[in-house]
Amino acid sequence: MKNIFIINGHQKYPFSEGKLNASLTAKAEKFFDKQGFQVKKTTMDDTYDVAEEIEKFKWADVVFFQTPINWMGVSWSFKRYIDEVFSMGMMGEMSEGDGRSKDAPKKNYGLGGKLNGKYMMSVTANAPKEAFNNPEEKFFGGMSEDELLRPMHLNFKWFGFKPMPTFMAYDVMKNPEIENDFNRFEEHLHKHFSK
């Protein structure tokens, strides 16, 4: 039996209530329930206990997190969650500090992770798909989706988690294709989690 920890990292704004992220989170939870996985969940609207959140990461075989891209990163509330939970987790529960030792103080930075699960990112973005992987697009300059999300990849690598393929819903504010996104999302989950 797989243990899935779902995080909804959306922060509500007057112009973005979080309906799409909530819908994708709900679809993921329904999918995992139907597949027979055990599910625990946290949203940024929840009040949470840091020690309990650390236990969820230790319990999880897979951490699935749903987040919007806010200013090229995750929302403030999700970043605060990461700062609070991950900072305490690196004190021995989720990693041995930053991975370095007294014997090798200049080696193995970031390699002290004690967990061996996987993680999957599902992301909503205002940017169109065409903005990525295209050197002619000046802003990202050929950057891929996962290159933009590299800090989150490194955060999970710090604790020993291995990546699963990322899902992204594009252009969600100006030119949304919600039904198509939902269909692609379902296909993505089935491809990577169906027994």
Radius of gyration over C-alpha positions, nearest whole angstrom: 17 Å
- Low-pLDDT windows of residues: none
Strand fraction equals: 15-25%
Largest sheet: 6 strands, parallel
The end-to-end span amounts to 11 Å
Q: What's the β-strand tally? A: 6
Assign an overall shape: globular
Helix fraction, binned, reads: 25-40%
Summarize the helix and strand pattern as letters. Answer: EHEHEHEHHEEH
Mean model confidence by pLDDT: 94
General description of the model:
The protein has 195 residues and is an alpha/beta fold. Helices cover 35% and strands 16% of the residues. It contains six helices and six strands, in the order E-H-E-H-E-H-E-H-H-E-E-H. Strands 1, 2, 3, 4, 5 and 6 form a six-stranded parallel sheet that branches. Helix 1 packs parallel to helix 6 and helix 2 crosses helix 3. The mean pLDDT is 94.
